[in-house]
Specification:
This protein has 329 residues and is α/β, with parallel strands linked by helices. It is built from ten helices and 15 strands. β12, α8 and β13 form a beta-alpha-beta unit. α4 packs parallel to α5. The mean pLDDT is 93. The chain binds 8-OXO-guanosine-5'-triphosphate (8GT). 8-OXO-guanosine-5'-triphosphate binds next to β1, β4 and β6. It comes from Ferriphaselus amnicola. GO terms for molecular function: 8-oxo-7,8-dihydrodeoxyguanosine triphosphate pyrophosphatase activity; 8-oxo-7,8-dihydroguanosine triphosphate pyrophosphatase activity; 8-oxo-dGDP phosphatase activity; 8-oxo-GDP phosphatase activity; metal ion binding.
């Protein structure tokens, strides 16, 4: 979201995904709507309506102070989901809140629960959830790093060695993208990659080949720009992502029902020296208001994660940088 005042036509809501780190991993907070509100008893992300003249961020800070008694220190803009209830159409402006001051207090008598948020398992252990929130949990389960394969350059053996190392270090989502590899080699690499990734609880997206995803039991497809332009329906696979460069492509990805998108190139890249790139400000304008998580791609390193969150990204996607040389053991 931008920090501009918001349109009064639909009910604008600021909602917080509070994230805390524990010994068992990251957790997020759900709150139960108090008895005197519509949808009483349903579980939701803390937050509330944006008041006239407020930005979503200002409303977020006010709501968390009023509802939970905390002072927000760090809030990253995340996805924006519109949902029509019988009583109103709401636009939920989500922020991931990672730092705050003060202890949580239920100022409106509401119950709280902290839920685990390990990769691909941000499920709610409470019910009922507000109906708008199910896709939000799915989005929340996406890990912060999306790695793109580089096997043609590294060679298959070396790529698989580095993949195993990355998986051991926590990589949970990767795309096999080997445009110049002969089909039979790609197939055999895909089989080995999927087996290795699944043994570590990680997901594998295949670039462009929907049939191969189904045949080999990969987790999803990363649609090419051409597929994104031509498909009329979201392919029936577990995860579907799109590669985007413009606002039009992002809209198309949302309309098609993609689960997430790549937006590139953010910075100059080794593979396309001198080619135009978005820069972080344009990235932020394009990502603002998107209903699906966006990974920033192009010229980035792991150190750019926080910068990407500040500009509305869910996380970063890395190609060469995802496969550092590391140890040879
Ligand atoms: N806070 C919050 N609201 C949500 C979520 N999901 C969702 O659909 N909503 C909807 O967004 C709207 C938020 O309104 P609210 O009643 O919480 O707002 P508020 O705190 O300003 O309440 P008030 O108008 O009673 O003062 C409701 O229609 C609610 O159903 C969510 O995760 N968190």
């Amino acid at each position: 979201m931008t920090d501009q005042p918001l349109s009064p036509k639909i009910v604008e809501v600021a909602a917080a995904v509070l994230v805390r780190n524990t010994a068992a991993g990251e957790e997020f907070l759900l709150a139960q709507r108090p008895a005197d509100k519509i949808w009483a008893g349903f579980w939701e992300f803390p937050g509330g309506k944006v008041e006239s003249g407020e930005t979503a961020r200002v409303a977020l800070v006010r709501e968390l102070r009023e509802e939970l008694g905390i002072a927000v220190q760090t809030a990253f803009p995340w996805i924006v989901r519109q949902f029509t209830y019988p009583h109103a159409t709401v636009r939920l402006n989500f922020f991931r809140v990672t730092a705050w001051q003060g202890e949580l207090h239920p100022h409106e008598g509401q119950q709280f629960v902290w839920q685990p948020i390990s990769a691909f398992s941000a499920v709610a252990h409470v019910s009922p959830l507000l109906p708008a929130n199910a896709p939000v949990l799915r989005a929340l389960s996406l890990p912060p790093l999306y790695a793109i394969s580089n096997a043609s350059e590294l060679g298959e053996c070396e790529f698989l060695r580095r993949l195993e190392q990355a998986l051991d270090q926590g990589l949970r989502l990767l795309q096999l993208r080997e445009k110049s590899m002969p089909q039979d080699e790609l197939r055999s690499l895909a089989i080995r990659t999927i087996a290795l990734a699944h043994a570590h609880g990680a997901k594998v997206m295949l670039n462009g080949d929907i049939e191969l995803v189904r045949e080999l039991g990969a987790d999803g497809v990363q649609l090419t720009g051409t597929q994104l332009a031509q498909l009329n329906e979201r392919p029936d696979v577990e995860w579907c992502a799109a590669s985007c460069h413009t606002a039009e492509e992002l809209r198309r990805a949302e309309v098609l029902g993609c689960d997430f998108a790549l937006l590139s190139p953010v910075l100059p890249t080794l593979s396309h020296p001198g080619a135009p790139h978005l820069g972080w400000d344009s990235f932020a304008s394009l990502a603002a208001g998107c209903s699906i998580p966006i990974y920033a791609l192009g010229g980035l390193t792991l150190k750019d994660s926080e910068t990407s969150w500040q500009h509305g990204a869910h996380g970063i996607a890395l190609l060469r940088q995802a496969w550092p040389e590391g140890s040879s053991n």
